[in-house]
Every structure is written in structure tokens, then in C-alpha cells.
Amino acid sequence: MDATHLDTFIDALIDDLTPAPVPEDEADRRLCHLLDSPRRIVDEPALLAVLAAAVTARNVFDHVIAQAVAAAERAGIPARRHLRTGADLLTSIGVAPGAAYRAARVGRAAEALPALTAQQRLGGVGIEFADAVGKGVSHIESRVALSDDERAEVVTTLMIQATPSGVDKKARGIAIEKVKTQSVDDTAVPVAENTDLNDMSVVPTGDGRLSATLDLDVLTGEELLAALDPLCRPIPLPDGSPDPRPVGRRRADAFGQILRTYLSSSGRPMSGGVLPHVTLIRPAEHGVDSLGFGGPVSTATAELIACDSTLTSVLVDHSGAPLDVGRAERLFTPAIRKGLAVRDGGCAHPGCGRPVSWCDAHHIIPWEHGGPTSLDNGVLLCRLHHTAIHHGGWQVYIGPDRHPWFIPPHDPTGPEPAHLRSHARRTMTDLPTAA
Ligand SMILES: [Zn+2]
Ligand SMILES: [Zn+2]
Questions:
Q1: Ligand in nearest proximity to the CA of 307
Q2: Segment Disordered: which positions (predicted)?
């Protein structure tokens, strides 16, 4: 079948599968169009058959895409079009980057994995599963050499797993087993210590977040754990109840703290002649605030970033011109920071007290709303509690005692909860009027 036949087939298939517009009261008849059948499809076996057929068709088409893109790479087509890889070729015709890279990866791996390819041809294996098998095999082969027979055996074992993550887990198990049984070469670097196997992926997710995975040698892993450990400790809530953050959340918060500490140090490598910082692009008038790498952010987050300008060194208008009006006044001077450090002794949020070096200096009345950069308009907050102010409904003000006081999130129509003393004042009376 050449491409023309395929086009005709796809046209016919789409016509068959696309429901024609039907009146509202007959909406439940739409499914009839999915099968070439005049009767209403409401019974379970028929619906399941439609689903199974569609999944098989999807698997076959994904296989066709993977094979076609691998063939295009072998023929040198991406290079002729000034593209780097087959994945770029796919994105140029509208495939999302993640799916494009996966298709190219699965296509390239196909040749070495005939048993898997045979199943894909039949539509019995989804592309996510095929990708997991391919990755599993290369995970093992990066650690031990496999003969063709051994590789076929590995593929068979991986293919009986139920899910892509099951495949991944099994592959790691097989790799560990095979390494153990391999004849020991004294000069070889143990797998655990081999930095050549290190890998980090950073993938933007559909909702604008960033997902990362790490595969580290034992020493780098040790350094990661040593760096995270002291930063992961639970912080009790102001009322003394335990930190509600699960360990994964605390680890991620700790990792953020490591990044901020690193970014605020001066001994790090330059990028284009400047120290790389978080860049917030704020349109001067109307428009959406956005980050240099990450794209649009909410006003609350933009205000958090702009609140302490040690977090961002570049504020620009929509045309990219720096907005440096009054910048010097916006920054808390070292002298004011020192004063804040003496008064707050670290994060001022009740029950926190994280060290001064971890803290942002928060403008209580935002600078752009006329709030001065002064001791009486500043408060030291760790990132967790700075976020609680900008995002979480907490409020802070300077009391008559000239210390920060906090108001927990509450329904504005209901009674106001008791105001809480700053961390540094926790042993004093809780009457805001008492000095
Ligand atoms: Zn702030
Ligand atoms: Zn804090």
C-alpha cells in the first residue's frame, strides 16, 4: 500500500468515526456512527469492542509513525531540511515535543528488538510500553553487554510486565542481577560509582510545571542527600501541631532552598557575561507577567518574585527594556537587612525561625503600592512562609511593639482569628498592644 492508499483509507476511517451533527434529544445515538451499525450501541460488549478496536488502531498508528520517522532518519531527510533529528521533523508537522522524541526513540530501537516490533505491528503494544521496553534494554546494556539471544530473553521478560513503570522496575532489577553475576574485572568502575551512567531529565509538564528525574552515582547521590537532609526537617505549625507536608514535599522544598542558595552565591559560572538569575518579565502596562524559562505566572507569584529583588536581578518592560526606576530604593540595603535580622532572628513566621540566610525580605506594603523599603515595612520570611503570605491568605503587619504579627487565613465575613506573634517574640505576651 503506498501513501495514497493510506490517505484514502484514513479519510474513509475518519468519515466513519466522526459523528454527524444530531439533534440534542438524539445525542445518545451519536455512538452509532462509531460502528457501521444502524442500531443504538448501548450494550457493554459493543462499547468495549469499539474501545479495543480504537486502542489497537492507535497502537498501530503510533508504530507506523515511529517506523516512518526512523526510516526518515536513515534516509537523511531531517538533515536535508536543516533539522537535527527525526523528532524535530515530527514537531515541524505538529507533534508535541515529548511524543516526537518518544516516537523517534522507539523507531530507532525497533531494529534491535524484533519480538517487540512484531507485537507493535499487531497493535498489541502501546508506544508508552514499547518505549519503556526500549529504555529498559538500553539501561541494562549500558551496564552489561548482551548477546542477541540474551537481549531477546530480556525483551520477553520485560514484555510480560503489566505497565511501563513495571517494565522500568524489572529492567533495573535485571541490570543489578546481571552485574552481580558478571565476571569481576578489578579495574572496572563499579556500576554504583560510574558517573558515565548519570542522567537527569527535565521535562515541562502540560500544566506548566517542571518534572525532573535523576539517576546518580553513589557519591553524587550522597552529596544530594547530605545537602537535602538538614533542609528537610519538619517545621511545626504555629499552634505546635506537626508539619503537614509529606516527605516528598519537604524534599522538594529543600531542593528549592538549595537552588536559591546557589543562585545567590557569587562564585558560580557566568552565562553570557552575567550571573544567571531568575528573570521576571513584567509588562509596564497591561499584559501577563512571565518567567525567562517557564513562561506565564500569576500576579501573586510575580509579586512574590518582585517583593525581594535579590530573587530577580532583571525587571524589563514588554519591549525588553530594563525598568530600573527607583531600583536602588526597592532593594533592602545591607543595613536594613541587618536590622531585620536582629529584630526577626530568621523567618518571623510563628513557629518557624529558619536562619536569616534562607530568608527573603518581604515588603509588607508592596513597593509598587507605595510601601517604603524600611525596617517598619520589612519582614524576614523563609520561602515557604513568604509563599504563605503571597499565595496562602496569611497576613502580616508590624504591631505597636514594632514586631511582625501574623493573621492566619480566614473567611473575611467571619470572625477574625487571634493574631500570632512573630517567631522571635513567641515567649512574650500575645497581646498585640503590649510592647
Ligand atoms: Zn513578599
Ligand atoms: Zn518560615
A1: 1
A2: 411-435
